[in-house]
Every structure is written in structure tokens, then in C-alpha cells.
Amino acid sequence: MAKALSRFTIQPADDGYTLHIEDDSGETLELTATADQLDIIAEAIEDQLDEDIEEIDVVN
Q1: What is the pLDDT of residues 18-40, one digit of tens each?
Q2: DSSP class per residue in 1-60
Q3: Which of 2, 18, 20, 48 is the least crowded, having the fewest Cβ atoms under 10 Å away?
Q4: Which pTM does this prediction carry?
């Protein structure tokens, strides 16, 4: 079962960025990412949200 997102932060680091992803139980996952990887993540989120909005528009 998927955990619910509670908190998400991004901070600059020497080798790119550090992401902290915290779930609703307080468990935190720490990841490093490059600027290119963050760009890919941002594009994927934007694409998904755009698809969701299009589906809502079609239903209405």
C-alpha cells in the first residue's frame, strides 16, 4: 500500500540537489538529484496534471 506524502523539500547541494520526501508516518527518504533529473521530474508532474485536467474537461 502506498504511503501518503506529508512533506517534500529540495535543497541545493555540492553535487546537485538533496530531496527529502517524508511520509505520513514521519519516515523520510533522502535522495540526491541533478538539475536535469529535477527537470524531468517537474515535466512528468506537469504532464500528469495536464492529463488530469483534460480528463476533467472531457467529463464536464
Answers
A1: 999 999 999 999 999 999 999 99
A2: -PPPEEEEEEEEETTEEEEEEEETTS-EEEEEE-HHHHHHHHHHHHHHHHHHHHHHHHH-
A3: 2
A4: 0.77
